[in-house]
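Suppose a classmate hands you a notebook page containing two proteins, each written out with its sequence and a corresponding row of structure tokens. How would you begin to make sense of it? This section walks through that situation. The first entry is reproduced here exactly as it would appear on such a page.
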Amino acid sequence: MALNEARIDPARGSAHPLAQLHDPATIRARCKAVMGSVESGVSPNFSLNRSQLPAVADRVAALTLRRFPDLVIPYHSRWRHFEAGGLDRKAEMDALMAGRSVAEQARARFDLTVVSVLLDAGAGPSWTYKESPSGQTLQRSEGLGVASFRAFLAGTFSSTPGDPLRADAASLQRVDASVLRTVFQSGSDNPMVGLEGRASLLSRLGQAMEREAGRSGLQARPGLIFDRLTEHGTQDSVAAVAVLGEVLRSLAPIWPSGSNVQGLAGGDVWPHRWAGSEVGSAAEPGALRTTDRTTEGWVPFHKLSQWMSYSLLEPLQWAGVTVTGLDALTGLPEYRNGGLLLDGGVIVPRDPRLLSRTWKPRDEFIIEWRALTVMLLDELAVLVRARLGKTAEELPLACILEGGTWAAGREIAKELRPDGAPPLRIESDGTVF
């Protein structure tokens, strides 16, 4: 899909044919419809045991207090992985950027964030990364994050002489699986899944940034998203839904997998027989929901784009930009959040043998599990806040995830399985999970 076909912004009411599928309120509306099929007993895949939800909330609240005793909880963000092992790697990057303008520092952080999130899609249970400056050996998301951070600082994604701290279109388009094998220290004795898919994403990112720069006159790098959101650093307030809208608009052409809806690339949007056609508007809280027959039966998630949006909140704030409406974005329906609800006995497969299969993202079983995860995370957030004595304003969903549900999903997985693997397996090309 060409970039001019992807100009969607739910906060501005664009008339793009798929605009409703990029609105977080529609994500919730469609997931609620899918949950209805489970609650009514129509679904052959799952039932719900909400009596287990308080115990899961207890676990999340207790873990949150252990990790953040003062309840000063940062956002669920890629920047948390850059802190692995207790190291302040941001400070290291900040020192390297001393003397740059606020806007140029923000562009560099956007470059790093976008590239690093696109490289974060499950590494497999046996992969490890050894960081040479610290000597730390890291796994899973922390290892992926630190590896991409080190590659960024080394100039792997820059083609600009004398300026390694950038990711520009020319360099991104040259990334292939062999480059990423080096970045991630991957080989036959240290295998990583999905390298080809990740390399394809970065190459397509470079192409998209080059085309976007040609239209806008901005630099051909992910940092142009900062300029688009803030009008070149002149705006001091941005809505979270606008961040997601800009991410979806700018990156729409890069996804090699996902669904086609009405002949257009929909990305992380999938068909479900009970999804319905209800939509909403994240830009207008409390507005009456309507129906959208053109996208009836499709459930949007945009997990990776929302994860990226969460990860861009801090770079915006570090640049002096206030981000509003955080809870318009949804919880992230992926291995750890959804695994917590499976392992915690809230989401119950009707046939336990279904968990032993390997699934694809478009399978109804997976779509349904993800839809339930989105809705139950909202319910869980209410219970966790009550246990911690916090309001939604004091503890937004982005902090509940970090505090949090994601870490609790990893914790319970380690308790139940020796390798800490999630409770189900999904065939991934590195672009959805």
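The notebook's second entry, a different protein, reads as follows.
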Amino acid sequence: MTDLAASLIPDFDLTTRNTLALEARSRFGLLLDHPDQLPDLFSYATDSDLPVRILGGGSNVVLAPEFHGITALLTLRGRAVIGETADHVLIEASAGENWHDLVQWTVNRGLGGLENLALIPGTVGAAPVQNIGAYGAELSEFLHTLRAFDRSSGTTLTFSRDECGFAYRDSVFKQHPDRFVVLSVQLALRKNWTANLAFAGLSELAQAADLTPRMVMDQVIALRTSKLPDWTVTPNAGSFFQNPIVPETQAASILAEFPAAPCYPQPDGRMKLSAGWLIERSGLKGYRLGPAGISERHALVLVNHGGARQADISALADHVKATVLARFGIALHEEPIFL
């Protein structure tokens, strides 16, 4: 307990530790580089009547200016090939590893599967919480098992893929944000790799001879950099709103007015629409509200033009939701978490 107290960093500045670059401070900070710190952390916090929040790369959060508790940065490191089955190679990565670095690491070893998820900002530990997805792929397709610390029992648990409760941008870890801390993930990558080229912009690769995971990854990176602003240049949290999944009748009414509107059938009979398209069609691309705005490059991305705080991002998000609801009758929901 004494050692943990000595490790706390007072008046912890988080402005450079969130990709929106929001002005934010925490009463205390802690670098969590070993799972054994977690029991002491939560015990100390309980005894001191301090709230705790866990932060990874800060890429999917909208931070408040002040947090009167402990912000623990998950810095667990390590990644390795740990085994194989008849059909898969198994890799394990700690929660503090950078997600894109992990994708590159697998591709450099000739392992395919994660290439469609390249250049997604954030850490490995955050990836299953949100069940990250892009270009027709989702993390849940590859997850084998996951280790997480359970605050309610004080023990470390192992979850199978089914036990993670994955859904579109959802998981049991997102549903219980104050209970579980993801420590590491095991991913199963198929030995007999087949490229996933169903998404627009990738299908042209089907004609390529000797297609490799690296070729797909490079194309995904090119597509993302051509459309999305670089958060290191223009601070942002990536895609800010989930693509809404609506009844077929509601999608049909939009298609009747806009036959070319992006619309994707779902297994349950509903339809997934493009949130970015809805926002752009509502006339909001490039819109600015004080120091916060909507990217001129992609209507799904909210940006910090300088000096923005949580309230500015919240006000802009509310304006977007109200405008799209009035125009199309569709309610949008944020992807980032307000902390």
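A careful reader of the second entry would note: The chain is about 25% helix and 25% strand.
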